């Protein structure tokens, strides 16, 4: 039974329920207390030790029902078949094969047991997600001894005067039924173990995908990507808020404590603590949504949106030909609508970095002070227009840090109409960030070193 | 700091041991006025049998705190309650030194010191004698126990309720880990203090923030959902004696239909119970649209919600 529990833990992990060894031990102990007889008690006990949030409880319920499915194998009783109950001669014919005996007498438990054993031998639970289910079904049936049934059927058909015809038809029907059952069994196993890891595989691939590749993010993957970015932003937020709180804790202020103790004959009744002044950090994010970064724009905006949810004081701007503030759009809408609105308003025009920087300098320069970190998201391709480096210098001088994240690799930065190498001079950090993975690393660095806390 | 220690009268404890099976536990909780679903009782049963803390989640007012209170009542154990909030730290949760008394102690020591050391031959001899004296400055008599320490020091065990743990800081959460996994605390000046009898620990959370995995891993998890109509009717009947069966049915059905609406704060069990109490006080025996409109503020806590529901009262009443 311990083996079965282990398999169950694996299935849970595949369904995104985290089961640590400690929890596995707890669950096993819980089962020792409850026993296996009461299914509901067994389930609730496992649930309280393994599932640790409302979502995990839902996942647990569905995995449990699939894994410990009752009546996993159904066999029609032999009396339902057109030939009626099998005769003694039929059973004698099939004496060589336990499987044939079981299907002839309609013994579902025996068939199920045989299927489970064959599955364990064939390692159905360990299948890689790429294996095709039909192949597995075939392997499973062979393991159960289907060939025996086929041989007996063939023998029966060869008997003179059609004496074996009844048995042959009967076995033929049973074989079809077995085939269906095995198919369902494999599908269930696939749901339990392989579907989860296939999802993981997709997420992993997406993390490394070049986001400015032609066509951008596949619409199919888009939802998944939004979820990933959100997870990422949440992770950063957790880390980031923790650090800020730690910084707020003070040490004993010896001087002030001594001064205050004067009133009590030098006995330090009132203790005072050093208080660290916490600068409220703020971020100004400026995002390029023009034609040249069309493929990556969606991704950059998704990130901008998540960042806006995470950081308290953030001003977000988007530009292509001109620059606008998109704070309100990001605040008031869901992520998909917000992105669509930003793109409608300002997206996909001719890039003009100089003009956009001028817009920023004229209208929003007062947002920058010594506590502000400026994050540019863009490719630095200005269509051979004046890049207005003087404005960039001004931004650089006013802000605490300027960070430029470019979806293009560094080797492209001085080619064609790219002025990235010239802008880079006025940035504290200029990095390529073409994939989600790189982006997370860069932003982590940003929050750690450039945002005051 | 809200510290509450309730010692229930021993007569409350039923004769049969409620911990022999889950069904006995359901009956036992029922006898102290808590109608538990099977999942709740199983989680509680496992918590007792495995000696693990139990983390109770669910929206406000579904009876998370009440579960701990009822359990203490049922088992005849004292309840020690610690309300968490932002900024709660170990000096408020675990122990604090009695600084005033410590200062007085040093004053007394200073006064006595002259007499005790007067006959010492020289400075070195005086120092030797000083070291020989017992040092009471950091000792148990000067320790002011806070809820967690109190819980560990109960001889016969107790029920420890750490309420709304999600409101505390993450640092405090990490500090709880030692208490929850080993039922002990380390006081740097004294050493490790181990529980005489491990307390039964309840943590409740409203999901203001996600709790850390380390904390979750050490606890059994119980999520209390809003109840089905039948269960809710039983809860109302048990909590509000004197409410008529038909009224109970009607008001529970009304509340259940409110929960399907898109409200800022859908009413939970405590609101249903309050409403039933209010209706009993008003001597109402059936729900009329006017009565519902007048008492809507008992079940809905936001102006927008009341405004949204008010015009639909008649329709909601007739829906069933």
Provide an overview of this structure.
The complex is a heterodimer of chains A (453) and B (320). By secondary structure, chain A is α/β, with parallel strands linked by helices. Chain A has 19 helices and six strands. In chain A, strands 3-2-1-4-5-6 form a six-stranded mixed sheet. In chain A, α11 packs parallel to α13. Chain A starts with a helix and ends with a helix. With 320 residues, chain B is of the alpha/beta class. In chain B, 49% of the residues lie in helices and 13% in strands. Chain B has a six-stranded mixed sheet, with helices on both faces. In chain B, strands 4-5 form a two-stranded antiparallel ribbon. In chain B, 33% of the residues are buried. At the A-B interface, α2, α3, α4 and α11 of A face α2, β2, α9 and β10 of B.
What is this structure, in a nutshell?
The complex is a heterodimer of chains A (453) and B (320). Chain A is of the alpha/beta class. Chain A has 19 helices and 6 strands.
Largest sheet of chain A: 6 strands, mixed
Rounded to an integer, what's the Rg of chain A over CA atoms? 34 Å
Q: Examine the coordinates and then state which fold CATH places here, giving the name of the CATH topology of the largest domain in chain A.
A: Rossmann fold
Number of separate strands of chain B: 10
Ranges of chain B where pLDDT stays below 50 over 5 or more residues in a row are 7-15
Q: Percent helix among the residues of chain A? A: 55-70%
Task: Tell me the radius of gyration of chain B.
Answer: 26 Å
Strand order of the largest sheet of chain B: 1-3-6-9-2-10
- Give me the secondary-structure category of chain B: alpha/beta
Mean pLDDT of chain A, to the nearest integer, reads: 78
Order of helices and strands of chain B: EHHEHEHEHHEHEHEEEHEHHHHHH
The helix-strand sequence of chain A is HHHHHHHHHHHHEHEEHHHEHEHEH
The total count of strands of chain A amounts to 6
Q: Characterize the overall form of chain B.
A: elongated
The poorly predicted ranges of chain A are none
Residue share in β-strands of chain A: 5-15%
Overall mean pLDDT of chain B: 85
Judged by helices, strands and strand pairing, the structural class of chain A is alpha/beta
Please report the number of helical segments of chain A: 19
